[in-house]
Amino acid sequence: MSVIEYMHTLGQQARAAAAALAQTPTAQKNAALVAMAEAMDAARPALIAANAKDLAAAEANGLDAAMLDRLRITDAGIDAMMEGLRQVADLADPVGEITDMSYRPSGIQIGKMRVPLGVVGIIYESRPNVTIDAASLCLKSGNAAILRGGSEASHSNQAIAACVTAGLQQAGLPEYAVQVVNTTDREAVGQLISMPEYVDVIVPRGGKGLIERISKDARVPVIKHLDGNCHVYLDDEADVTKAINISINAKTRRYGVCNAMETLLVSASRAAELLPEIAQHLQEFEVELRVCEQANALLGKSSSAGVIAASEDDWYAEYLAPILAVKVVADMQDAINHINKYGSHHTDAIVTENYTKARQFMSAVDSSSVMVNASTGFADGFEYGLGAEIGISTDKIHARGPVGLQGLTSQKYVVFGDGHTRP
Amino acid sequence: MSVIEYMHTLGQQARAAAAALAQTPTAQKNAALVAMAEAMDAARPALIAANAKDLAAAEANGLDAAMLDRLRITDAGIDAMMEGLRQVADLADPVGEITDMSYRPSGIQIGKMRVPLGVVGIIYESRPNVTIDAASLCLKSGNAAILRGGSEASHSNQAIAACVTAGLQQAGLPEYAVQVVNTTDREAVGQLISMPEYVDVIVPRGGKGLIERISKDARVPVIKHLDGNCHVYLDDEADVTKAINISINAKTRRYGVCNAMETLLVSASRAAELLPEIAQHLQEFEVELRVCEQANALLGKSSSAGVIAASEDDWYAEYLAPILAVKVVADMQDAINHINKYGSHHTDAIVTENYTKARQFMSAVDSSSVMVNASTGFADGFEYGLGAEIGISTDKIHARGPVGLQGLTSQKYVVFGDGHTRP
Question: Which end of chain B is more exposed for a tag (fewer CB within 10 A), N or C?
Answer without folding.
Answer: C
